[in-house]
Amino acid sequence: MNILFDVLNIYYIPQYFPVWRELKKRGHNCSLIVYSKKNDKNLLASTLENLDISYTWVHDDSEAKDLYLTQKPDWIFFGNEFAFLDEIHQKSKTVQMGHGVGPKPSYYRKSDTPMTVRFMEGEVRLKKIEEMYPKDKFVQVGFSKLDPIFDETEQGLDLAKLGLDPSKKTILYAPTFNPTSLGCFPKNWPSEFSEYNILVKVHSLTLSRDRYKKDQERIQAWKQYSNVYVAGVDEFSLVPFLKTADVLISEASSTLFEFAALDKPVVICDFYDLKWSYKGIFKYRFAKRFGADSVIYKELGAHAANYKKLKPIIQDEIENPKNYKNNRRKYNIDHVGPTDGKASIRIADYLENN
């Protein structure tokens, strides 16, 4: 089979990669289609080369559509909606597979334009989306992004090579893009957590857009501390960081589900800033994007009401990692699905059988 993966954003690749790996192992022809309008071509070219994956650049979805209609692949994977499905479906079958399992209603609404099949993660999510779109095809497979951790092919980070102390416990701080707690952390916060390694993995947009200079300056200040490693924009995969860390700090990211699926403690920041587009007269946008019907993190792990309360909570979660074990197990079944490292195998089986 000829199978293409639509890479609107570079952070789709960690979700696609385990599936690409399984399909290549079975002898299928696979390639990434990467959008230069959304991704820095110069910055990412060497990263894509290092992945040893075949790829083609297109400017936007219109150019991608033309390529798909010309190549007529058997299957095309999408991480979001796509505007030209009526034309595409005359030539190819399509897959929708989200890059995260976060709380945004858009997780469900991207199925407003149905694809041939959508691969789903947990039981609750499957049930909900089947109720919303009873005529469409959904198949529960799990969360392929985490397969390399569960099948133990992901080795994680070498802390010593990063200049960190392997004898220390490691915190992963992975703030969301919007809302974000990033601005609520002082420039000297690594000094207050000196007994820990700190891995900082922020959204690629925060690092790459000029409008976020203040955030970038704050991150650069953290980078100067010997117990901190800040991931570069080229390190688009969170998976090695998830594998390595002992505890996660975030606020509204699907990373919370992913880390909890590894049965490791998460600490949820109830303090954060909103971008201007969600403030004042635009606050309705925030309610719409994180609506009352969306998934919440209320019982997934410990919550910190403000920055000052964060450290004792971190310490308690590291010393008592079983605090929320039962909650994590339930969230995992409901939202992430099977954690046997075989989501990609189930996906490949489905494509071959259909």
UniProtKB/TrEMBL annotation:
Protein name stated in the entry: CDP-glycerol glycerophosphotransferase family protein
Pfam families hit by this protein: Glyphos_transf
InterPro entries linked to this entry: Glycerophosphate_synth (IPR007554), TagF_C (IPR043148)
Source organism: Paralabilibaculum antarcticum
Organism classification: Bacteria, Pseudomonadati, Bacteroidota, Bacteroidia, Marinilabiliales
